[in-house]
Each structure stands twice: as C-alpha cells, then as structure tokens.
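User: Can you predict the 3D structure for this chain?
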Amino acid sequence: MTQLLCKPEKREIASGVTIVHEVKNEVSPLQYVELKIIELAPGAKYTETLNDKECCIVALKGTINVKDQKNTFTKLGTRESVFDKIPTDSVYISNQQRLEVEGVKPARVALCYSPTDKILPAKLIKAEENEVENRGSRNNQRLVHNILPDSNSAAHRLLVVEVYTESGNWSSYPPHKHDQDNLPEESLLEETYYHEINPPQGFVFQRVYTDDRSLDETMTVENGDVVLVPEGYHPVGVPEGYTSYYLNVMAGPNRIWKFHNDPNHKWILER
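Assistant: Here is the predicted structure, written as structure tokens:
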C-alpha cells in the first residue's frame, strides 16, 4: 500500500472516544500538516494539550461542545451527514491551550493541526460564516465550503475547506500543485484529503504526481480514507453514480493559496 493512502484505524482510546485517523509528522511525509478524525458518543470527551500546534476543529457530523482554557462553545454542528451539503460549525484554537471536545449527539470530528509559535485568540467559525461557492464547468464542477480560507486571518498557517464533487465529475482539476515557495506565482502548501463517498460502498480515484514523475501514485480511495499530498499535482475523479466529499487541510511556510496548473492540461481551462 502506498504511504500516501491511509485507511481508517478505528482505535478506541477511552469509553466513547474512537480515533479513526491519526496523521502525525513523525510517521508521515508531511511537515506542516497533521490530522485526526475522531468519533464521539454522547457525553464522551476528547482532551489534548496543543503545545506548539494550532488546531481547527470541524464538526463533520453530529453535535459537539468545544472548550479551551478560556472559552466554551456549545451545540456546534449542523448536519447528520456531510452529504446534507450544508456548511458546519468549526472552532480555531491556538497553541499553548488545552482543548476539550465533547459529544452531545453521536459525532464525527476533524482536528486539523499545523505547527506554530504564534499565539492567536480562539475563534468560533459559524456555519453561516463559511463562504460557499460553485467552481468549474462541464464535468469539472464542484461545491466548496471555505471554512478557513487565506482571506480569514484567524489562523497562522492552517487553511481548511470542504469540497463536494458530483457523479461523473473531476475535482482538483485540471491538475494543479502548490509545492514551491515561489510567491507570488506559487506557494508551498502540503495537503491532506479526508474522503467520504455517497453511497458509502463507492470509490474515487486520486493521482498524486510530480513533473519528473519521481512521485507518481494513482490510488483507489474508499469511504473514510485519507490521502496525503506532500507535493505534486493531485486530481480526483468521481465515478458515475457516486458523490464525493473531502475535507482539505493545507499549511506551509506562508499562509496563501497560489497554485500552478499542469502545463500539459492547462488547455482545458482555455477552451
């Protein structure tokens, strides 16, 4: 199995608290991005001290309470499934804080991390504050929920976005990359994709490749998988009959999203 494709591990660490994914810098090819996906039963609590990391907590489904040492945010979450296709609530918490996430209704939660030494105030990102946009045309259409875009100054490094791609369409396409610290033309941003698929027995394809093909992996991605993108282009193709959801987490030395399209496929945008 490729080191870029992570399967769910489903590890219960306390009563009602299950780690679905844990992507850590020490065991992944990423330096700027870490990710946890957790599931919480009602009343179950997950706690963590952030130390040198910032964190964006996304209520993927269900209802949660979130608090740090100064703030409490209650009854967060707007949907029973990501495929309700409505924005959800999130919370940004800076480093040097102890966080707690409590399940109110059965919940799946993403904890998105990046290293930082900059301390910022906690921020509730309400569902209605998400910028919602439709991108693309023809068979390259997708629905985007911008949770923590580069226009939102709440975070030091983190960028977080949700993307829906309909049956028979492509996403992160034409293939683009952001792996060079070459501003203003291109920024260096690592990325993770947390995938869900509707109906859940489906699959999508994702390719991660560089210009020189020193990295070139094409993966069959199933419901609940995570794909790591340390560098390179990273398109996603959705088969007929299925809908794709993914949560993107990006971070790098500069918090700006400037991408470079694969020159071989740029003509698709110029038709």
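The two ends are 37 Å apart (CA to CA). The first strand starts at residue 5 and ends at 6.
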